[in-house]
Amino acid sequence: MSRIPTTFAALSAQGRKALIPFITAGDPHPDLGLPLMRALVAGGADIIELGVPFSDPMADGPTIQRASERALAHGMSLRRVLALVSQFREENATTPVVLMGYANPVEAYGVEAFARDAQRSGVDGVLVVDYPPEECAAFAAAMKQAEIDPIFLLAPTSTEQRYDEVAQIGGGYIYYVSLKGVTGSGNLDLDEVARRIPLIREKVGMPVGVGFGIRDGATAARIAAVADAVVIGSRIIEEIENGEAQTAPQRVTVFLSGIRAAMDGVKP
To answer: Which residue, among 252, 210, 224, has the nearest Cα to 67 in the 3D structure?
Structure first.
């Protein structure tokens, strides 16, 4: 079993919600990958989503696209992402790590080889944006065989049939895309999110995390009041890119600590 269910169970027992920050592995430089992961933990991360850089990230807005471009320019690859997770595991055996990316790098690596190497590296979950559930039963089975949770997206346009499909082969938690569009875009309809979450949770039987468009503590706190987890990515990438690379870990910790404090002010 991955570390993800244990993490959600522990948080639930404490009356707290999961904070799931996202960074792109290798951005702004591969040498800062491990310091940034440490910074996320120091800032209060419960689970880390680590982006696998890709040249055509269709679900990502300009901010995360720039992060992928910077990482790729420094030679970051899926193999190097797994090596980074291995480094992290040498000092942190408890914080779950979820790889988030696209099918092309996984297919090029080979699904069986990827499952094996991801398990050895200490990966807990994989979210492949362009693997819809009806087309990746074999992939999901390979992940579960390796004790890695296959995590899926649901959106405001998802049907109850899609909920059922995800419930059958998914694991870990559901990533609910809170708005129509790419990462970092649009305005959240928090009332709509609040209406959707109970139905999704009932249908899929897994914790539900909400992401896309969360940029500050006030919004994170409102999401935490109704969801099981808050996912925040583009705003962290902005914090990384809007300053000196070497001070990025410190700035990320400060920013994330504010999000954590806001979330912890909300009682379920």
So the answer is: 252
Query: Catalytic: 202?
Result: no
Edge-to-edge strand list for the sheet holding 174-177: 149-150, 125-128, 97-101, 48-51, 18-24, 229-232, 208-211, 174-177, 152-154
1-58 pLDDT, tens per residue? Answer: 899 999 999 999 999 999 999 999 999 999 999 999 999 999 999 999 999 999 887 7
For tokens 């707290």, the residue is: 16
Q: Which of 27, 46, 49, 149 is catalytic?
A: 49
Tokens of 167: 């419930």
Q: CB count, 10 Å around CB of 17?
A: 26
Q: What is the per-residue DSSP string for 145-202?
A: HTT-EE-EEE-TT--HHHHHHHHHH--S-EEEE-SSSSTT-S---HHHHHHHHHHHHH
Catalytic member of 46, 60, 149, 228: 60
CATH (domain of 91): 3.20.20.70
N-term to C-term CA, the chain: 27
Q: Does the model's pTM come out above 0.85?
A: yes
Q: DSSP character for 213? A: S
Overall number of domains in the chain: 1
User: How does DSSP classify residue 134?
Assistant: G
pLDDT one-digit tens code per residue, 159-196:
999 999 999 999 999 999 986 544 444 566 788 889 99
CA distances in angstroms from 134 to 52, 110, 162, 165, 241, listed in the order given? 23, 19, 9, 7, 37
Host domain of residue 181: 4-264
Q: Is the bond preceding residue 5 a cis peptide, omega within 30 degrees? A: no
- Active site (annotated) includes residue 60: yes
